[in-house]
Protein backbone atom coordinates (compact mmCIF):
# COMPACT_ATOMS: atom_id res chain seq x y z
CA UNK A 1 0.00 0.00 0.00
CA UNK A 2 2.98 2.29 -0.49
CA UNK A 3 1.35 3.98 -3.42
CA UNK A 4 -1.65 4.86 -1.24
CA UNK A 5 0.68 6.60 1.19
CA UNK A 6 2.43 8.32 -1.73
CA UNK A 7 -0.90 9.52 -3.01
CA UNK A 8 -1.99 10.82 0.39
CA UNK A 9 1.37 12.60 0.67
CA UNK A 10 0.98 14.05 -2.82
CA UNK A 11 -2.50 15.39 -2.04
CA UNK A 12 -1.22 16.83 1.24
CA UNK A 13 1.66 18.50 -0.63
CA UNK A 14 -0.73 20.07 -3.08
CA UNK A 15 -2.99 21.31 -0.31
CA UNK A 16 0.05 22.67 1.54
CA UNK A 17 1.28 24.31 -1.63
CA UNK A 18 -1.97 26.09 -2.24
CA UNK A 19 -2.03 27.21 1.41
CA UNK A 20 1.58 28.38 1.20
CA UNK A 21 0.96 30.28 -2.01
CA UNK A 22 -1.41 32.51 -0.04
CA UNK A 23 0.99 33.11 2.82
CA UNK A 24 2.62 36.51 3.31
CA UNK A 25 6.25 35.42 3.35
CA UNK A 26 6.62 32.59 0.90
CA UNK A 27 9.73 30.46 0.70
CA UNK A 28 11.90 30.81 -2.40
CA UNK A 29 10.38 27.56 -3.78
CA UNK A 30 6.87 28.96 -3.35
CA UNK A 31 7.86 32.24 -4.97
CA UNK A 32 9.06 30.30 -8.00
CA UNK A 33 5.82 28.25 -7.97
CA UNK A 34 3.67 31.37 -7.75
CA UNK A 35 5.24 32.78 -10.89
CA UNK A 36 4.57 29.60 -12.79
CA UNK A 37 1.12 29.03 -11.37
CA UNK A 38 -0.57 32.30 -12.21
CA UNK A 39 -2.30 32.65 -15.51
CA UNK A 40 -1.36 35.59 -17.71
CA UNK A 41 -2.37 36.71 -21.20
CA UNK A 42 0.40 34.42 -22.48
CA UNK A 43 -1.21 31.38 -20.87
CA UNK A 44 -4.10 31.66 -23.33
CA UNK A 45 -1.85 31.58 -26.41
CA UNK A 46 -1.30 28.49 -28.59
CA UNK A 47 -3.32 26.34 -26.25
CA UNK A 48 -5.89 23.59 -26.57
CA UNK A 49 -8.60 24.05 -23.97
CA UNK A 50 -11.48 22.09 -22.48
CA UNK A 51 -14.66 24.13 -22.98
CA UNK A 52 -17.10 24.92 -20.18
CA UNK A 53 -19.80 22.27 -20.14
CA UNK A 54 -22.57 21.98 -17.60
CA UNK A 55 -22.57 18.36 -16.37
CA UNK A 56 -20.05 17.02 -18.92
CA UNK A 57 -17.31 19.35 -17.71
CA UNK A 58 -17.30 17.96 -14.16
CA UNK A 59 -14.12 17.42 -12.15
CA UNK A 60 -13.23 13.89 -13.38
CA UNK A 61 -13.56 14.99 -17.02
CA UNK A 62 -11.36 18.01 -16.38
CA UNK A 63 -8.74 15.86 -14.70
CA UNK A 64 -8.69 13.38 -17.60
CA UNK A 65 -8.46 16.29 -20.04
CA UNK A 66 -5.43 17.67 -18.18
CA UNK A 67 -3.83 14.24 -18.04
CA UNK A 68 -4.28 13.84 -21.78
CA UNK A 69 -2.98 17.15 -23.02
CA UNK A 70 -5.41 20.01 -22.35
CA UNK A 71 -3.51 23.24 -21.64
CA UNK A 72 -6.28 24.79 -19.51
CA UNK A 73 -9.74 23.64 -18.44
CA UNK A 74 -12.96 25.63 -18.00
CA UNK A 75 -15.46 24.61 -15.33
CA UNK A 76 -19.18 24.35 -16.11
CA UNK A 77 -21.14 27.59 -15.90
CA UNK A 78 -22.19 28.44 -12.36
CA UNK A 79 -24.81 31.10 -11.83
CA UNK A 80 -23.55 33.87 -9.51
CA UNK A 81 -26.41 33.62 -7.00
CA UNK A 82 -25.94 29.89 -6.61
CA UNK A 83 -22.39 30.44 -5.41
CA UNK A 84 -23.14 33.15 -2.87
CA UNK A 85 -24.29 30.87 -0.07
CA UNK A 86 -22.32 27.81 -1.04
CA UNK A 87 -20.46 26.18 1.80
CA UNK A 88 -16.86 25.17 1.06
CA UNK A 89 -15.76 21.78 2.31
CA UNK A 90 -12.52 19.87 1.76
CA UNK A 91 -12.33 16.09 1.75
CA UNK A 92 -9.24 15.33 3.84
CA UNK A 93 -8.55 12.06 2.03
CA UNK A 94 -8.96 12.94 -1.64
CA UNK A 95 -8.42 16.70 -1.39
CA UNK A 96 -11.66 17.34 -3.31
CA UNK A 97 -13.06 20.78 -2.57
CA UNK A 98 -16.85 20.98 -2.73
CA UNK A 99 -18.99 24.09 -2.84
CA UNK A 100 -22.23 22.80 -1.41
CA UNK A 101 -25.69 24.17 -1.95
CA UNK A 102 -28.65 23.24 0.22
CA UNK A 103 -28.86 19.62 -0.87
CA UNK A 104 -25.88 18.90 -3.10
CA UNK A 105 -22.42 19.94 -4.21
CA UNK A 106 -22.86 22.57 -6.89
CA UNK A 107 -19.20 22.81 -7.83
CA UNK A 108 -16.27 20.54 -7.05
CA UNK A 109 -12.60 21.02 -7.75
CA UNK A 110 -9.24 19.65 -6.66
CA UNK A 111 -6.04 21.59 -5.86
CA UNK A 112 -4.15 19.76 -8.63
CA UNK A 113 -6.24 21.55 -11.29
CA UNK A 114 -6.11 25.01 -9.72
CA UNK A 115 -3.22 26.36 -11.86
CA UNK A 116 -5.16 25.45 -15.02
CA UNK A 117 -8.74 26.06 -13.92
CA UNK A 118 -10.90 28.83 -15.31
CA UNK A 119 -14.19 29.16 -13.45
CA UNK A 120 -17.12 30.20 -15.61
CA UNK A 121 -19.77 32.51 -14.24
CA UNK A 122 -23.28 33.13 -15.46
CA UNK A 123 -24.25 36.62 -14.42
CA UNK A 124 -26.31 39.65 -15.32
CA UNK A 125 -25.16 41.78 -12.42
CA UNK A 126 -21.67 43.20 -11.78
CA UNK A 127 -22.02 43.16 -8.00
CA UNK A 128 -23.28 39.60 -7.81
CA UNK A 129 -20.59 38.50 -10.26
CA UNK A 130 -17.89 39.99 -8.04
CA UNK A 131 -19.37 38.45 -4.88
CA UNK A 132 -19.56 35.02 -6.52
CA UNK A 133 -16.01 35.32 -7.87
CA UNK A 134 -14.75 36.13 -4.39
CA UNK A 135 -16.36 32.97 -3.02
CA UNK A 136 -14.27 30.68 -5.27
CA UNK A 137 -11.24 32.89 -5.83
CA UNK A 138 -8.93 30.82 -3.64
CA UNK A 139 -9.44 27.65 -5.69
CA UNK A 140 -9.21 28.92 -9.25
CA UNK A 141 -6.86 30.75 -11.62
CA UNK A 142 -9.27 32.61 -13.85
CA UNK A 143 -12.86 33.81 -14.09
CA UNK A 144 -14.71 33.62 -17.38
CA UNK A 145 -18.00 35.33 -18.12
CA UNK A 146 -20.50 33.25 -20.08
CA UNK A 147 -21.85 35.52 -22.83
CA UNK A 148 -22.97 32.74 -25.15
CA UNK A 149 -25.49 30.41 -23.54
CA UNK A 150 -28.61 30.69 -25.72
CA UNK A 151 -30.94 28.70 -23.48
CA UNK A 152 -33.95 30.37 -21.91
CA UNK A 153 -32.90 29.68 -18.32
CA UNK A 154 -29.88 31.88 -19.01
CA UNK A 155 -31.20 34.47 -21.42
CA UNK A 156 -34.48 35.13 -19.59
CA UNK A 157 -32.43 36.21 -16.62
CA UNK A 158 -30.35 38.51 -18.84
CA UNK A 159 -27.36 36.16 -18.67
CA UNK A 160 -25.46 34.23 -21.32
CA UNK A 161 -26.24 35.18 -24.90
CA UNK A 162 -28.61 37.94 -23.70
CA UNK A 163 -25.47 39.89 -22.76
CA UNK A 164 -24.45 40.00 -26.43
CA UNK A 165 -27.21 42.50 -27.08
CA UNK A 166 -26.66 44.36 -23.83
CA UNK A 167 -23.01 45.35 -24.22
CA UNK A 168 -23.17 48.00 -21.49
CA UNK A 169 -24.10 45.35 -18.95
CA UNK A 170 -21.70 42.79 -20.39
CA UNK A 171 -18.76 45.20 -20.21
CA UNK A 172 -19.73 46.48 -16.78
CA UNK A 173 -19.55 42.93 -15.41
CA UNK A 174 -16.11 42.37 -16.95
CA UNK A 175 -14.86 45.74 -15.71
CA UNK A 176 -16.16 45.07 -12.20
CA UNK A 177 -14.55 41.62 -12.13
CA UNK A 178 -11.23 42.99 -13.36
CA UNK A 179 -11.27 45.73 -10.74
CA UNK A 180 -12.21 43.39 -7.90
CA UNK A 181 -10.02 40.39 -8.65
CA UNK A 182 -6.35 40.33 -7.70
CA UNK A 183 -4.00 40.58 -10.71
CA UNK A 184 -3.11 36.89 -10.55
CA UNK A 185 -6.72 35.95 -11.39
CA UNK A 186 -7.40 36.43 -15.07
CA UNK A 187 -10.75 37.68 -16.33
CA UNK A 188 -11.91 36.39 -19.72
CA UNK A 189 -15.11 36.21 -21.76
CA UNK A 190 -16.73 33.63 -24.01
CA UNK A 191 -19.05 35.06 -26.63
CA UNK A 192 -20.95 33.95 -29.71
CA UNK A 193 -20.95 35.69 -33.08
CA UNK A 194 -23.57 38.35 -33.70
CA UNK A 195 -25.48 37.97 -36.97
CA UNK A 196 -23.50 40.78 -38.59
CA UNK A 197 -19.71 40.81 -38.67
CA UNK A 198 -19.61 44.57 -38.16
CA UNK A 199 -21.62 44.35 -34.95
CA UNK A 200 -19.44 41.49 -33.77
CA UNK A 201 -16.32 43.61 -34.26
CA UNK A 202 -17.89 46.53 -32.42
CA UNK A 203 -18.75 44.28 -29.52
CA UNK A 204 -15.33 42.65 -29.51
CA UNK A 205 -13.64 46.04 -29.38
CA UNK A 206 -15.62 47.03 -26.31
CA UNK A 207 -14.98 43.72 -24.59
CA UNK A 208 -11.25 43.79 -25.25
CA UNK A 209 -11.07 47.32 -23.87
CA UNK A 210 -12.43 46.17 -20.49
CA UNK A 211 -9.01 44.70 -19.67
CA UNK A 212 -9.75 41.01 -20.20
CA UNK A 213 -6.85 38.60 -20.63
CA UNK A 214 -8.33 36.51 -23.44
CA UNK A 215 -11.45 36.10 -25.53
CA UNK A 216 -13.16 32.93 -26.73
CA UNK A 217 -15.48 33.12 -29.71
CA UNK A 218 -17.95 30.31 -30.23
CA UNK A 219 -18.36 30.61 -33.99
CA UNK A 220 -22.12 30.30 -34.04
CA UNK A 221 -24.75 32.96 -33.60
CA UNK A 222 -27.18 32.84 -30.70
CA UNK A 223 -29.88 31.18 -32.78
CA UNK A 224 -27.73 28.53 -34.42
CA UNK A 225 -28.00 24.95 -33.26
CA UNK A 226 -24.96 22.82 -32.55
CA UNK A 227 -25.80 20.76 -35.63
CA UNK A 228 -25.39 23.85 -37.83
CA UNK A 229 -21.72 23.94 -38.81
CA UNK A 230 -19.79 26.61 -36.92
CA UNK A 231 -18.95 29.52 -39.24
CA UNK A 232 -15.29 29.53 -38.38
CA UNK A 233 -14.46 31.47 -41.56
CA UNK A 234 -15.73 34.61 -39.84
CA UNK A 235 -13.15 34.37 -37.11
CA UNK A 236 -10.05 35.39 -39.07
CA UNK A 237 -11.20 38.98 -39.37
CA UNK A 238 -11.93 39.06 -35.64
CA UNK A 239 -8.51 37.60 -34.85
CA UNK A 240 -6.80 40.21 -37.05
CA UNK A 241 -8.92 42.98 -35.53
CA UNK A 242 -8.01 42.04 -31.96
CA UNK A 243 -4.39 41.65 -32.98
CA UNK A 244 -4.40 45.21 -34.38
CA UNK A 245 -5.76 46.53 -31.10
CA UNK A 246 -2.28 45.75 -29.78
CA UNK A 247 -3.25 44.56 -26.31
CA UNK A 248 -1.67 41.13 -26.66
CA UNK A 249 -5.03 39.41 -26.27
CA UNK A 250 -5.36 35.92 -27.70
CA UNK A 251 -8.54 34.90 -29.46
CA UNK A 252 -9.59 31.30 -28.93
CA UNK A 253 -11.71 29.54 -31.51
CA UNK A 254 -14.60 27.43 -30.32
CA UNK A 255 -16.97 25.39 -32.46
CA UNK A 256 -16.55 22.03 -34.23
CA UNK A 257 -12.92 21.42 -33.35
CA UNK A 258 -12.67 17.71 -32.70
CA UNK A 259 -9.27 17.35 -31.12
CA UNK A 260 -5.54 17.86 -31.36
CA UNK A 261 -5.23 16.82 -35.02
CA UNK A 262 -8.28 18.85 -36.06
CA UNK A 263 -6.93 21.93 -34.27
CA UNK A 264 -4.49 22.35 -37.16
CA UNK A 265 -7.36 22.74 -39.63
CA UNK A 266 -9.23 25.13 -37.37
CA UNK A 267 -6.24 27.35 -36.69
CA UNK A 268 -5.23 27.36 -40.33
CA UNK A 269 -8.65 28.61 -41.37
CA UNK A 270 -9.12 31.09 -38.53
CA UNK A 271 -5.63 32.21 -37.51
CA UNK A 272 -6.83 31.80 -33.92
CA UNK A 273 -4.16 31.41 -31.31
CA UNK A 274 -5.93 28.66 -29.40
CA UNK A 275 -8.82 26.27 -29.73
CA UNK A 276 -11.45 25.23 -27.22
CA UNK A 277 -13.21 21.88 -27.48
CA UNK A 278 -16.58 20.90 -25.99
CA UNK A 279 -18.37 17.99 -27.63
CA UNK A 280 -15.16 16.37 -28.87
CA UNK A 281 -14.02 16.20 -25.25
CA UNK A 282 -17.42 15.11 -24.04
CA UNK A 283 -17.01 12.10 -26.37
CA UNK A 284 -13.41 11.51 -25.48
CA UNK A 285 -11.63 13.65 -22.84
CA UNK A 286 -8.30 12.44 -24.25
CA UNK A 287 -8.95 14.23 -27.58
CA UNK A 288 -6.39 16.87 -26.55
CA UNK A 289 -3.63 14.34 -27.05
CA UNK A 290 -1.77 13.69 -30.26
CA UNK A 291 -2.62 10.03 -29.57
CA UNK A 292 -6.12 10.03 -28.09
CA UNK A 293 -7.36 6.88 -26.38
CA UNK A 294 -8.99 4.29 -28.61
CA UNK A 295 -11.23 1.42 -27.48
CA UNK A 296 -12.79 3.76 -24.92
CA UNK A 297 -14.94 0.93 -23.58
CA UNK A 298 -11.81 -0.85 -22.41
CA UNK A 299 -9.50 2.06 -21.70
CA UNK A 300 -11.38 5.18 -20.69
CA UNK A 301 -14.65 3.92 -19.25
CA UNK A 302 -13.32 1.63 -16.48
CA UNK A 303 -10.68 4.18 -15.45
CA UNK A 304 -13.24 7.01 -15.47
CA UNK A 305 -15.65 4.98 -13.34
CA UNK A 306 -12.91 4.20 -10.84
CA UNK A 307 -11.84 7.83 -10.60
CA UNK A 308 -15.44 8.99 -10.16
CA UNK A 309 -16.02 6.53 -7.33
CA UNK A 310 -12.79 7.57 -5.64
CA UNK A 311 -13.67 11.28 -5.93
CA UNK A 312 -17.22 10.61 -4.78
CA UNK A 313 -18.63 11.99 -8.01
CA UNK A 314 -22.40 11.63 -8.03
CA UNK A 315 -23.46 8.37 -9.73
CA UNK A 316 -26.05 9.92 -12.04
CA UNK A 317 -23.55 12.53 -13.22
CA UNK A 318 -20.93 9.81 -13.72
CA UNK A 319 -23.38 7.69 -15.67
CA UNK A 320 -24.32 10.65 -17.86
CA UNK A 321 -20.68 11.39 -18.69
CA UNK A 322 -19.64 7.78 -19.32
CA UNK A 323 -22.60 7.32 -21.63
CA UNK A 324 -21.33 10.15 -23.84
CA UNK A 325 -17.95 8.49 -24.48
CA UNK A 326 -17.32 7.40 -28.04
CA UNK A 327 -14.17 6.49 -29.87
CA UNK A 328 -12.44 4.46 -32.48
CA UNK A 329 -12.59 0.70 -31.90
CA UNK A 330 -9.32 -1.07 -32.58
CA UNK A 331 -9.34 -4.21 -30.49
CA UNK A 332 -12.70 -4.01 -28.77
CA UNK A 333 -15.47 -5.75 -30.68
CA UNK A 334 -18.84 -4.25 -31.39
CA UNK A 335 -20.46 -6.93 -29.21
CA UNK A 336 -18.21 -6.04 -26.23
CA UNK A 337 -18.97 -2.39 -26.67
CA UNK A 338 -22.71 -2.96 -26.84
CA UNK A 339 -22.66 -5.22 -23.79
CA UNK A 340 -20.84 -2.61 -21.72
CA UNK A 341 -23.16 0.17 -22.80
CA UNK A 342 -26.18 -1.93 -21.90
CA UNK A 343 -24.68 -2.59 -18.48
CA UNK A 344 -24.15 1.11 -17.91
CA UNK A 345 -27.66 1.92 -19.07
CA UNK A 346 -29.11 -0.48 -16.48
CA UNK A 347 -26.74 0.43 -13.63
CA UNK A 348 -28.26 2.29 -10.68
CA UNK A 349 -25.07 2.78 -8.70
CA UNK A 350 -21.31 2.27 -8.81
CA UNK A 351 -21.85 -1.18 -7.32
CA UNK A 352 -23.63 -2.31 -10.47
CA UNK A 353 -20.47 -1.53 -12.42
CA UNK A 354 -18.12 -3.31 -10.04
CA UNK A 355 -17.29 -6.13 -12.45
CA UNK A 356 -16.26 -3.70 -15.17
CA UNK A 357 -14.26 -1.34 -13.02
CA UNK A 358 -13.07 -3.54 -10.16
CA UNK A 359 -10.85 -3.56 -8.29
CA UNK A 360 -12.04 -0.14 -7.15
CA UNK A 361 -8.61 1.45 -6.92
CA UNK A 362 -9.54 4.88 -8.19
CA UNK A 363 -6.59 6.09 -6.15
CA UNK A 364 -4.39 4.63 -8.89
CA UNK A 365 -6.15 6.78 -11.48
CA UNK A 366 -5.78 9.85 -9.30
CA UNK A 367 -2.15 9.08 -8.68
CA UNK A 368 -1.51 8.72 -12.43
CA UNK A 369 -3.24 12.05 -13.08
CA UNK A 370 -1.23 13.86 -10.40
CA UNK A 371 1.96 12.33 -11.73
CA UNK A 372 1.15 13.22 -15.35
CA UNK A 373 0.40 16.83 -14.40
CA UNK A 374 3.44 17.20 -12.18
CA UNK A 375 5.79 15.68 -14.75
CA UNK A 376 4.36 17.45 -17.75
CA UNK A 377 2.97 20.87 -16.85
CA UNK A 378 -0.23 21.31 -18.90
CA UNK A 379 0.57 25.00 -19.40
CA UNK A 380 3.69 23.97 -21.32
CA UNK A 381 1.67 21.87 -23.74
CA UNK A 382 1.27 24.27 -26.62
CA UNK A 383 0.21 24.08 -30.21
CA UNK A 384 2.59 25.33 -32.88
CA UNK A 385 2.24 29.11 -33.25
CA UNK A 386 -0.25 29.58 -36.07
CA UNK A 387 2.28 31.27 -38.38
CA UNK A 388 3.96 27.87 -38.68
CA UNK A 389 0.72 26.43 -39.96
CA UNK A 390 0.96 28.72 -43.00
CA UNK A 391 -2.43 30.15 -42.14
CA UNK A 392 -2.38 32.71 -44.91
CA UNK A 393 -1.72 30.07 -47.51
CA UNK A 394 -4.64 28.22 -49.03
CA UNK A 395 -5.20 24.83 -47.42
CA UNK A 396 -3.31 21.85 -48.88
CA UNK A 397 -5.10 20.25 -51.78
CA UNK A 398 -4.95 16.82 -50.24
CA UNK A 399 -6.66 17.92 -47.04
CA UNK A 400 -10.30 17.25 -47.64
CA UNK A 401 -13.01 19.19 -45.95
CA UNK A 402 -11.01 22.35 -45.38
CA UNK A 403 -12.99 25.27 -46.70
CA UNK A 404 -11.13 27.62 -48.99
CA UNK A 405 -10.59 30.96 -47.36
CA UNK A 406 -8.84 34.06 -48.42
CA UNK A 407 -8.81 37.14 -46.24
CA UNK A 408 -9.27 39.20 -49.45
CA UNK A 409 -12.67 37.73 -50.11
CA UNK A 410 -15.74 39.42 -48.68
CA UNK A 411 -17.05 37.48 -45.72
CA UNK A 412 -20.64 36.40 -46.17
CA UNK A 413 -23.09 37.44 -43.54
CA UNK A 414 -24.27 34.31 -41.82
CA UNK A 415 -27.74 34.95 -40.65
CA UNK A 416 -29.27 32.61 -38.17
CA UNK A 417 -31.64 30.14 -39.73
CA UNK A 418 -35.22 31.08 -38.96
CA UNK A 419 -37.23 29.37 -36.22
CA UNK A 420 -34.17 27.86 -34.60
CA UNK A 421 -33.92 29.91 -31.47
CA UNK A 422 -33.13 28.08 -28.27
CA UNK A 423 -33.40 24.67 -29.80
CA UNK A 424 -32.85 22.64 -26.68
CA UNK A 425 -35.21 22.59 -23.72
CA UNK A 426 -33.77 23.84 -20.44
CA UNK A 427 -33.63 20.33 -19.15
CA UNK A 428 -30.82 18.41 -17.53
CA UNK A 429 -28.08 20.87 -18.30
CA UNK A 430 -29.71 23.76 -16.51
CA UNK A 431 -27.37 25.16 -13.90
CA UNK A 432 -28.56 26.08 -10.44
CA UNK A 433 -30.88 29.04 -10.84
CA UNK A 434 -31.05 32.04 -8.56
CA UNK A 435 -34.04 31.96 -6.19
CA UNK A 436 -35.48 35.18 -7.55
CA UNK A 437 -35.14 33.95 -11.11
CA UNK A 438 -38.63 35.17 -12.03
CA UNK A 439 -37.92 38.71 -10.92
CA UNK A 440 -34.73 38.81 -12.98
CA UNK A 441 -36.57 38.20 -16.23
CA UNK A 442 -35.84 40.96 -18.71
CA UNK A 443 -38.40 42.50 -21.02
CA UNK A 444 -38.47 40.66 -24.36
CA UNK A 445 -37.52 43.65 -26.50
CA UNK A 446 -33.75 43.69 -26.33
CA UNK A 447 -31.90 45.93 -28.77
CA UNK A 448 -30.80 43.86 -31.74
CA UNK A 449 -27.20 45.07 -31.80
CA UNK A 450 -24.74 46.80 -29.49
CA UNK A 451 -25.54 50.45 -29.22
CA UNK A 452 -22.48 52.09 -27.75
CA UNK A 453 -20.70 54.74 -29.83
CA UNK A 454 -17.49 53.47 -31.31
CA UNK A 455 -14.04 54.82 -31.75
CA UNK A 456 -13.63 56.30 -35.25
CA UNK A 457 -10.92 53.72 -35.99
CA UNK A 458 -13.45 50.95 -35.88
CA UNK A 459 -16.23 52.65 -37.76
CA UNK A 460 -13.83 53.04 -40.66
CA UNK A 461 -12.60 49.47 -40.54
CA UNK A 462 -13.66 46.45 -42.67
C1 LIG B 1 -23.14 19.37 -22.56
C2 LIG B 1 -22.79 20.80 -22.88
C3 LIG B 1 -22.81 21.74 -21.86
C4 LIG B 1 -22.42 23.06 -22.14
N1 LIG B 1 -22.35 23.95 -21.12
C5 LIG B 1 -21.82 25.19 -21.36
C6 LIG B 1 -21.51 26.08 -20.30
O1 LIG B 1 -21.70 25.76 -19.12
N2 LIG B 1 -20.99 27.29 -20.60
C7 LIG B 1 -20.73 27.67 -21.90
O2 LIG B 1 -20.23 28.78 -22.14
N3 LIG B 1 -20.99 26.83 -22.92
C8 LIG B 1 -21.49 25.60 -22.68
N4 LIG B 1 -21.66 24.73 -23.71
C9 LIG B 1 -21.25 25.14 -25.07
C10 LIG B 1 -19.80 24.72 -25.33
O3 LIG B 1 -18.89 25.29 -24.41
C11 LIG B 1 -19.36 25.11 -26.75
O4 LIG B 1 -19.43 26.50 -26.88
C12 LIG B 1 -20.22 24.49 -27.84
O5 LIG B 1 -20.57 23.16 -27.54
C13 LIG B 1 -19.47 24.52 -29.18
O6 LIG B 1 -18.26 23.82 -29.08
P1 LIG B 1 -18.09 22.36 -29.76
O7 LIG B 1 -18.46 22.50 -31.19
O8 LIG B 1 -16.64 22.00 -29.53
O9 LIG B 1 -19.05 21.44 -29.06
C14 LIG B 1 -22.07 23.42 -23.47
C15 LIG B 1 -22.08 22.46 -24.47
C16 LIG B 1 -22.43 21.17 -24.19
C17 LIG B 1 -22.40 20.14 -25.30
TrEMBL record:
Reactions catalysed, as given in the entry: a 5,6-dihydrouridine in mRNA + NAD(+) = a uridine in mRNA + NADH + H(+); a 5,6-dihydrouridine in mRNA + NADP(+) = a uridine in mRNA + NADPH + H(+)
Keyword Membrane: no
Chain intervals with Polar residues compositional bias: 451-462
GO cellular component, one term: cytoplasm
Region (Disordered): 18-37, 377-462
Pfam families reported for this sequence: Dus
Record-linked InterPro entries: Aldolase_TIM (IPR013785), DUS-like_FMN-bd (IPR035587), tRNA-DUS-like (IPR052582), tRNA_hU_synthase_CS (IPR018517)
Cofactor(s) listed in the protein's UniProt record: FMN
Stretch forming the signal peptide: none
Domain DUS-like FMN-binding: 50-369
Domain of life: Eukaryota
PROSITE patterns linked: UPF0034
Molecular function GO labels: flavin adenine dinucleotide binding; tRNA dihydrouridine synthase activity
Keywords assigned by UniProt, alphabetized: Flavoprotein, FMN, mRNA processing, Oxidoreductase, tRNA processing
Entry keyword Flavoprotein: yes
Listed GO biological process terms: mRNA processing
PANTHER family linked: TRNA-DIHYDROURIDINE(20) SYNTHASE [NAD(P)+]-LIKE
Name of the protein: tRNA-dihydrouridine synthase 2
Organism: Coprinellus micaceus (Glistening ink-cap mushroom)
Lineage: Eukaryota, Fungi, Dikarya, Basidiomycota, Agaricomycotina
Amino acid sequence: MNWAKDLARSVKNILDMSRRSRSVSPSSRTTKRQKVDHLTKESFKNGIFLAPMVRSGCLPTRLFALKHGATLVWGPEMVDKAMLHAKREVDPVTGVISYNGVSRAIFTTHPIEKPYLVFQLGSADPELAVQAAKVVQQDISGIDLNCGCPKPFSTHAGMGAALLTNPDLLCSILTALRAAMPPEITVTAKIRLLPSQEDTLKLVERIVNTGISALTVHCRTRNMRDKNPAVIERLREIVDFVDKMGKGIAVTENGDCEGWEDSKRVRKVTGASSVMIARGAESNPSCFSETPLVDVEKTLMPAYLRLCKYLDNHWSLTKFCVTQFKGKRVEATKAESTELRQKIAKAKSFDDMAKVAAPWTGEDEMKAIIQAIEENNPKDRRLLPSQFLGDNAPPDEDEEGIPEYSSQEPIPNYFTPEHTQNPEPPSLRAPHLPNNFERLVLPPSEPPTPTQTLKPSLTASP
